[in-house]
């Protein structure tokens, strides 16, 4: 919205022309989302407290988490509002990549909201039935993946980029829809599973979002895309604004979510930001690199799959002391803060490895 105002004002005051540059709008997007999170954060937390929207702790979880019972949840609303306002202010609202990413975030946010509502109103830690939740995730995931496929501007949008190899792609054609669906829905559930400790999921989200923003900018820039042998996709650079907003809102949320957390994001936040990261990765054709950078989310998901599989196939035998993986380390005696910070450090390394794919070809 403000981009149109500054374009108009630049006719009279040349200084406003600086806001036409995506780099400047990216900076403003981060700051807007961050500052807005600081402003609305305390109000949302107090609102949740007044409504008695407190977290229900699973009986089969770590006993040390029982003290967190009643902590306000659904704080992910703060993230969604901050990102939406920032995108509205600084994004090009005619850009379909930006609109699809925002739609994905809000749609998965609604699914998470319903799940959280069932948890806090009916005091059921399990929330929405898994099959029901997955059904609606699939509907939105397929719709978004198909939209990206149908609105593709160039053939490269139907390819799967093989990282660390120069000009190596797998042409997927309509299979792009299926790959996109799995990345979006899988990422949504992976972040949801990881969001079990204070700040554990949100800081990796900030780092990965920032990295994907770099990929979006490079992919949508003719010179950089050609120089780095990336698939040039015109218009996708606008997702830099979205990624910046998500990173800024994530940092703002971390202010209140850092241990000991004043608020939890809930499924309204985790499902939404997971899907957001996934749709950006699909749009910029970095699905495999995203899998590397989001390694913590991937391993957390695999730990649950392996644990459930082992329990069912090996007559109740478990691989881990508790799943997801972060609970396993808690059961081994790691303090919650140790698990969180060590997982953050691992994510930093993985993000750097992912960014290295820009040059290592």
Primary descriptors:
globular; 361 residues; mainly alpha; 2 strands
Secondary structure tally, helices: 14
Helix proportion of residues, in percent?
A: 55-70%
Nearest-integer average pLDDT = 91
Shape: globular
Instruction: Report the major sheet.
Output: 2 strands, antiparallel
Number of DSSP-assigned strands: 2
Global structural class: mainly alpha
Query: Termini distance?
Result: 39 Å
**Which radius of gyration do the C-alpha atoms yield?**
20 Å
Low-confidence stretches: none
Give helix and strand order, one letter per element, not per position.
HHHHHEEHHHHHHHHH
Set down the secondary structure blueprint.
Layout: H1 2-9, H2 22-50, H3 76-90, H4 96-121, H5 130-150, E1 159-161, E2 169-171, H6 175-194, H7 202-219, H8 222-227, H9 239-257, H10 266-283, H11 287-293, H12 295-313, H13 325-331, H14 336-356
Antiparallel strand pairs: 1-2
Helix pairs in contact: 2-3, 2-9, 3-4, 3-9, 3-10, 4-5, 4-10, 5-6, 5-10, 6-10, 6-12, 7-9, 7-10, 7-14, 11-14
